[in-house]
Amino acid sequence: MFKSITCCNFSFLTALAACSVLAVSGCDDSQTTPVSQGKSAPGNFLAAKYALNSGDFTTAISYSKKALAQNPDNPRLIQGLYNLMLLTGNYKEAITLASSHLKEYPDDFFASFIMTLDNFQKGNFAKASALLAKFKDIDASSNDMRLKLLVEPSLEIWSLVGEKKYDQALQELSKYYNSIEVDDFVLFQKAIINDLAGNIVTAKSFFDRLSKSPNNYYITSYMISFYHRNNYADKAQDVINEYYKNTQPLAGYRVEDDNFNNLNMSQLSPKDVAQSIVSVILCEIGTILQNSEQYDDATFYYRLSLFLDHKNDKSQVLLGKTLERRGLLNEALLAYNSVDPSSRYKRRMPQEIAEIYNKMGKIDQAKALLISDSASNPKYADALLALGDILVSNKNFEEAISFYEQAIVRLKAENKSLEINHWPILYALAICYEQSGNWEKAEKNFLKALDLSPNEPDVLNYLAYSWLIQNKNIKQAEEMLRIAVAQRPRDAHILDSYGWALFKLGKFDDALFFIEQANARIPYDPTTNDHLGDIYWMAKRQTEAVYMWKRALTFDPKPEDAQRIRLKIKHGPEDAAKLAAQSLSVKPVNIVQK
Hints:
The protein is 69% helix and 0% strand.
């Protein structure tokens, strides 16, 4: 059965997944009495909460402002509003609200945190340190606990660095990490602080430990800069070479995008480094949250990261991706367009933007952008591949073929031959040919994909099931599907295909076992219900067979499949196959076709 087509390890950060910071509260969530939105504080609050849950932050802010105007002394409404301001990148208004709120509620942890961050961003490190000392013992709510545990200590350490109190910063760093695993990022911070303090020998000892297995772009970049600044050019090149041994290139990126040889080799200021480091920490927290699908919280941390360092392009790109996943396409587009032209991520932006256009239904704009990008980079295939994928997502299979073929030509020219990681391109091209009615070329490309990566379950499933439909290579198809099932024993589509291969080999009991498993996992799929009906018919369970066929009709099968199923219900599968063959003036084929 076919499926539908469609950094550095911060160990301590990863271990701490706390609850949401985005609690817009101030009213009782259990309220069930209908309220009039826009006419009362509770109504406006509930409207704001609904908009927030829907991802409409602009509307949430609008209703929150109305609720606050009607209930100006509610501290939770104030906090929720400046929280939303931060979420949308409206830093100035958020800080103004937080500052005003802090005067009324000096023990509010979150407002104190925002004001500390504001002073940190402005380079007022002494004031940031004073605020940190003041609210260090303030109890944080469960919503603020992530900030308390992760961000507050980093602000404390790097505020001291900003004040050039390097020894004190190192003491705090050692104290903070004394009871937890010391990972690469801790060593990195020690190296940087010693570098800024002029302790070159000590800094080099830490960098030398990190240089043995560099696997993070940010750390590697700083390390290379350090070695160049201190006349260790050979060591810098060794780090670059080792980085590429330890790191897989980002999807869609190339080695030259890293710009390791064009780094700023001058000694950075303590202010810039301090802000950059905390920005990176905030970004990593956001990434952990994004990976656990907590998109609003991730957005919040990416915004804070960019507030401290607007040049943090990783945060900018990940912000765009998070907003895209949240369905905020216009905001995502703005984030992608804000990536610096000199960034290593800039190469990928036309493809990300084109995908946004695709999701907006602006297919012509997506095509124009990618065709232009491809023309500007005639050696590379990434824009062509992205365009092929977009066309496939819109079922423009014939048009996609040309772009995939052009991409393959470029890949062969660049790499001399296709490599193992190129199998998905051949797989996509094969599907395009199959969907366009050119089975000969489809089969050829499926087999080429398997030559590159012999045990890919998706390719095995698609090719094997296609053979089953054509009633050929049945035994080979069954062997291929057995390999696929071993790798993905819970994949309903593969289970269905394997069961169908067993059915064709006359192993009806085994076939029933696998197709019933498939149907249990995707009970609303017309193909599994159709297949199950055929097996029941062969088992002399005609009533159940007819039930399954009728059930299959309720799940919107393809028109030709629906016609074939109706014939089976009326005449039985044997006579239905003959009638279908006569109407098509072709040789009879298997009673169940895709």
